[in-house]
Design a protein that fits this description.
Low-confidence stretches: none
Number of strands: 2
Number of helices: 8
Shape: globular
Largest sheet: 2 strands, antiparallel
Length: 159
């Protein structure tokens, strides 16, 4: 159908998007309808399959970007920690939805980086120990303040 064709390119049925946005709105309890309406009316969103994001992360891991970033950080004498990332396709992401909403809303507190998106994009870069800890809860955008991790995630999301 034409709806399926449009979904291939990231377009989402308005009702589905509104329902998903209401679940993630600033007041998902429904008590503040005015805030929720403003939040959902200013959406220009897309659903992306989580596997697309994971593949982008794995591509970055397999590229020379991690080594170049590490070398740049050493040259600049940055004290931030780096680590070796390996592609581990066995890591579970079943606690995350199959499709991640990437959207925008005017004056949105979260911005484009939902906790689901940040968590999904960060998991492939973490060590096993850090992955076990992180897979227990959603991660916020503040984790991207780590220079090495933040650059790895940004490179992946911009692919």
């Amino acid at each position: 159908t034409s709806a399926q064709c449009l979904q291939t390119f990231g377009f989402v049925e308005h009702d589905l998007l509104q329902q998903r946005a209401r679940n993630e709105s600033p007041d998902s309890s429904g008590r503040n309808d005015e805030l929720n309406d403003a939040w959902t009316e200013n959406l220009s969103s897309v659903l992306i399959d989580k596997n697309v994001i994971l593949e982008a992360c794995w591509d970055v891991i397999e590229s020379d970007f991690p080594q170049r970033l590490k070398a740049t950080m050493e040259e600049a004498e940055m004290e931030d920690e780096t680590w070796t990332c390996i592609v581990d396709r066995t890591r579970s992401t079943s606690f995350l939805p199959d499709s991640i909403v990437i959207g925008s809303a005017l004056e949105d507190e979260k911005g484009l980086l939902s906790d689901e998106l940040v968590t999904l994009a960060v998991l492939p870069f973490l060590t096993k120990c850090a992955y076990r800890e992180a897979s227990r809860s959603m991660l916020g955008a503040e984790i991207l303040e780590d220079f090495y991790l933040g650059n790895m995630v940004c490179k992946s999301l911009l692919k």
